[in-house]
Amino acid sequence: MLTNTDFVSSYFEEEKISASIMIILGSIYVVSGLFFLFIIKYSFFKGMAIPLLLIGCMQCGAGSVIVMRASKDISRVEYQLVHETQKIKYEELPRMEKVLDNFTLYKYFELVFIVIGLLLFLLFFNSVQTFWKGIGLGLLLPALILFVLDLVAEKRAKQYVNFLLEAF
User: How many separate domains does the chain show?
Assistant: First the structure.
């Protein structure tokens, strides 16, 4: 059976793993975007390069922050569980509510990117304007992957919040 501190440690370690996956994917997007932009130079791939570079940089940045913060979060919450239990109620739970609210916002943005990407891809599918089809596909694929990753992270965050609520 997991102790309180084991559960906290497990939650933040899983967050770190998820963030590492985001960094890896973001890096792949950035490298692909640069390759498409400077090596291939075909209109479709130049279109793909723009969203891949932007989304990739955002993912690398967000993932890095989570990875760097995770160990401090583990120490902070474990200490609060043992020594300052009221801080769980007045600091950690409100922080996690903001995290869950942010997931809702992220999913809306991702759904907008998915719809825009799909529309651009379909509207320009048979067009000679392959640049716009590339932008569409460049938005669609990473947004779909991010949406799935955020669904998983949100579920994990809800389990963590439920654990905190039951513990206190």
Answer: 1
d(CA 63, CA 16) in angstroms, rounded, equals 8
Q: Which helix (H) or strand (E) holds 120?
A: helix 93-123
d(CA 139, CA 165): 38
Instruction: Count other Cβ atoms within 10 Å, centred on residue 71.
Output: 13
Q: Per-residue pLDDT tens for 73-99?
A: 999 999 998 889 899 999 999 999 999
The pTM for the full model equals 0.91
Q: Compute φ and ψ for 2, nearest 5 degrees.
A: -75, 135
Q: Are the C-beta atoms of residues 8 and 96 closer than 8 Å to each other?
A: no
Q: CA torsion, points 74, 80, 86, 92, in degrees to nearest 10? A: -10
The b/e string for 50-61 (b: 16+ C-beta within 10 A; e otherwise) is bbbbbbbeebbe
Query: Which stretches of the chain score pLDDT less than 50?
Result: 1
Cα distance between residue 77 and residue 80, in whole Å: 5
Question: 3-state DSSP: the chain helix, strand, coil percent, rounded to 5?
Answer: 90, 0, 10
Kindly state the tokens that stand for 66. Answer: 């989570």
For residues 152 and 57, what is the distance between their CA atoms, to the nearest angstrom? Answer: 21
Residue 63: what pLDDT?
Answer: 97
Domain enclosing residue 16, as ranges: 4-167
